[in-house]
Structures are given as structure tokens and as C-alpha cells.
Design goal:
Blueprint lengths: L7 H13 L5 H11 L6 H13 L2 E9 L2 E8 L4 H15 L4 E3 L6 E3 L12 H19 L1
Antiparallel strand pairs: 1-2, 3-4
Helix pairs in contact: 1-4, 3-4
Length: 143
């Protein structure tokens, strides 16, 4: 459940971790693959996500957000982990769908936090493996 003051980066990281687990929510993994390919979700995919989002009602209330601002605190009426992840996924799509990518080396999902949104690998190790393999292939081809 999202708590007041909880960092969106923390929530996004938790979402990506769940997308990368083999036992992660299959629907969200499938939808994330579509988004990571830079494609929009089609009407059927949006309907599937909306079905999960609508499954559990929330209560909302206006609270003091600090620094002269207001915030809306939302709480699920009952515990539904898949619905919570679906809500985080929908939030990510609303804020920055171009941040969700899939590693060109290992296929894991990651969030691209670079300004230019040009990151291609989930870790520098994956990038190194790809560059070494490309280098070796070029050397074999030239000599």
C-alpha cells in the first residue's frame, strides 16, 4: 500500500522487481513487454488492466501534505497484492512509460533514469558482456 511520503522511485523499483520474477504477475509481465517495445497498449490490454484495477475499491481522503500542500491518501479496502502492483504499473504508464525498458542482453525489465532515455542494459555487466561479444564477433569476421 502506498504510504504518504513514499518515494515513487522505491515503488517503481518494487514494481520492476516483481516484473522480473518468474512467478510475477503474468498479465503485468505481458503488458510490460508491450510497453518496453515502445508500443501502446491496445484496447483489449487496457481492458485487462482496468479489470484488475477495478477489482479492489479504495478509500481516499485529503490530508496535509506538508509545505503548504495537500495530498490524497488512498488505502485499499482489502488486501490485493496483484491489484496494488497493477496500480503502480498504471501510475508508471501515466508518468513515464518511456522509462520502462527491457535489457538487450538478458531480457530483464529495468527503468531508464537517464536524461536522454538511451540506456540499453539493466546493468553495466550486461553492457560489458554485449560489447565483448560484439568485439569478438568483429575480430572473427576480419581475420
Amino acid at each position: 500500500m502506498m504510504q504518504l511520503g513514499q518515494d515513487m522511485n522505491e515503488l517503481d523499483a518494487r514494481l520492476v522487481d516483481s516484473l522480473n520474477r518468474e512467478d510475477g504477475p503474468k498479465l503485468l509481465r505481458r503488458l510490460a513487454a508491450t510497453v518496453a517495445e515502445r508500443r501502446m497498449l491496445d484496447a483489449g490490454q487496457r481492458a485487462e488492466l482496468n479489470e484488475v484495477l477495478a477489482r479492489t475499491p479504495v478509500t481516499a481522503r485529503l490530508v496535509d501534505g506538508g509545505h503548504g500542500r495537500y495530498a490524497i491518501e488512498m488505502q485499499l479496502v482489502c488486501d490485493d497484492p496483484e491489484r496494488e502492483l497493477a496500480g503502480q504499473f498504471a501510475s508508471l504508464l501515466r508518468r513515464a512509460p518511456d522509462r520502462l525498458k527491457r535489457c538487450e542482453e538478458c531480457g530483464r525489465f529495468f527503468l531508464d533514469s537517464t536524461r536522454s532515455r538511451t540506456r540499453r542494459w539493466c546493468t553495466s555487466q550486461c553492457g560489458d558482456r554485449k560489447r565483448v561479444r560484439s568485439h569478438r564477433a568483429r575480430r572473427r569476421g576480419t581475420g
